[in-house]
Amino acid sequence: MSEHFSVERGLFDDVMVPNYAPSAVIPVRGQGSRVWDQQDKEYIDFAGGIAVSALGHCHPALVGALKEQGEKIWHLSNVQTNEPALRLAKKLVDNTFAEKVYFCNSGAESNEAALKLARRWALDVHGEDKSQIIAFKQGFHGRTFFTVTVGGQAAYSDGFGPKPGDIDHAEYNNLDSLKALISDKTCAVMIEPLQGEGGIVSPTDEFIKGVRTLCDQHNALLIFDEVQTGVGRLGELYAYMDLGVTPDILTSAKGLGGGFPIGAMLTTTEIAKHLKIGTHGSTYGGNPLACAVAEAVLNTVNTPEVLAGIKTKAKLYVDGLNSINAKYNVFSEIRGKGLLIGAVLNEKYQGQAKNFLNAAMDEGVMVLVAGASIVRFAPSLVISDEDITLGLARFEKAIANLV
C-alpha cells in the first residue's frame, strides 16, 4: 500500500495532541553521537534524548541484542517470567545495594511503584498514620498524577482536580526545611541525588548525608530517584555510590534502556516483601526485548574504562564551555557532574535558554534546557572526544550569532 501523504513537521499539528511543540527538524537516522535529518543535514547530539541515549545511536551491542532477542520472544504475560528479565535483575542486584528488582516501562512508572511500595510498607509495618511523603521544590519525578504531585513544580500538577494528599515539599540543600517537615508520620523522603529538571543542582555532602540521618531517626524510607542520574551518567554506575549514602529504594530508567523504554525499581528483600502478589503490576514490565537491550547497556557501561572515561569527557566539556564563556561572557556558572552539565545563563540572558537551543540547532548541534535559563548537556557516555570538540565549536558559533 503506497502512502499518499508526506511525513513532515506540518503533519504533527494535524494528527498529534498539542502538548508538545517539536522543532521543525525531523531526525531520521543516527550513528554514534551524530544524527541526520530529512534533508540529510548532520547534527552532533549533545542532548542524548534527555539523558536516555547512554550509548549514542545504533550502538552495535544494543542493535545486536535487539535483533537477537527479536528473533526469539517479544512478550509474555506476568504469568511467566523470561530469561532476559532474570539476567538483567541479577546484574542489577549484583552491582548495587539492592536485593530485589521490579521492572516497568518508564521513569514515572518506576517512581510510582516506589511511592506505592513506601506507602504499603508504612501501612503494614507502622499503621495508617504514617503516610506523609516529603519531596523537594523544583524536583521532578514523572507525569503520572501521583509522581507529578510529588514532583516539586506545581505548574505541572495544577489543573487536574484534587491531588493525592499528604505530600509536602522541602527545599533542596536546606536541611532545616526538611527538619521542619519530617516526623514519625513521614513514610518516605523522595529525592534526586542531583536535581535535573530543577536546574542541574548537586547536593552538598552535609545535606545528602543529613537527609539519610533524618530518615533513619524517623523510620522513613529514603527513595533515590536515579532516573536521570543512574547508569553511569554522573561517572558511577549509580550516583548514590559516590555520595556515601545508600537509599532504601532506588528508581532507574532513561539510560538503562539506551533508548528502549524500560524502568526499574530496586530495593531490599525486607521492604520488597510488602508488594505481595496482586498489589502492583505492569503488562509490559520486564518485557524480553527491553531487558535484553538493557542488559547490553549495563554490560557496556559498567566497566572501569567507560566509567572513568565519563569523568575525563566531563572535564573536556567543562573546560570547553569555560573557554567559550571567557570570550562571550554569557554564563554565570558551569555546574553538574559527569555528563550531566548545566551552563547557567547570566543576568543579561535570563529566560533565553530556548534561544540558545534553537541557535545551536541551526549550527548543527543538539542541546537541552533545564528551566528557562540553563542550557543542559546530556550526551552519549561514550561520545568521542572529536565529537565533543566539534560540537562545542558549533555551539560557540551559535553563541556568536546570538550575542
TrEMBL record:
Residues the record lists as binding pyridoxal 5'-phosphate: 107-108, 140, 225-228, 283
Leading EC class: transferase
InterPro entries: Ac/SucOrn_transaminase_bac, AcOrn/SuccOrn_fam, Aminotrans_3, Aminotrans_3_PPA_site, Class-III_PLP-dep_AT, PyrdxlP-dep_Trfase, PyrdxlP-dep_Trfase_major, PyrdxlP-dep_Trfase_small
Pathway: Amino-acid biosynthesis; L-arginine biosynthesis; N(2)-acetyl-L-ornithine from L-glutamate: step 4/4
CDD domains in alphabetical order: OAT_like
Primary localisation category: cytoplasm
Cofactor: pyridoxal 5'-phosphate
Gene Ontology terms: biological process: L-arginine biosynthetic process
Binding site for N(2)-acetyl-L-ornithine: 143, 282
Additional record remark: May also have succinyldiaminopimelate aminotransferase activity, thus carrying out the corresponding step in lysine biosynthesis.
HAMAP family, per database record: ArgD_aminotrans_3 (MF_01107)
Name this polypeptide is given: Acetylornithine aminotransferase
Organism: Colwellia psychrerythraea (Vibrio psychroerythus)
